[in-house]
# Entry
Amino acid sequence: MSYKRGRRLEYEVRDLFASRGWLVVRAAGSKPVDLVCIKGGQAVLVECKYNDRPSHEELEKLSEVSRVSGAKVLLAVRPKYGRLRILDPWTREEYALL
# Structure
């Protein structure tokens, strides 16, 4: 995936969270996640992917980030022919942005 395409997805997800009142910070270099979203004392860390099936290594990395930070980690995915979805990376349940 090209850098521009990935950045465009990150901006789309950033704008989605911001439109619902979240303060969103884009992480430089996508380390360890792409976006940090904060609202009402709650922090959510978001990894953006075009592939909706992250590798085992990616899931391990997200699990470690969640454990260390105490924040919920979400996966924002846009399949090739699908709509943008915000998911729990392990259960695949959609996350409702409040």
About this structure: Strands lie at 23-26, 35-39, 42-49, 72-77, 85-87. The CA atoms of residues 60 and 95 lie 20 Å apart. The chain has one domain: 3-87. Residues 3-87 form a domain with the Trna Endonuclease; Chain: A, domain 1 fold (CATH 3.40.1350.10).
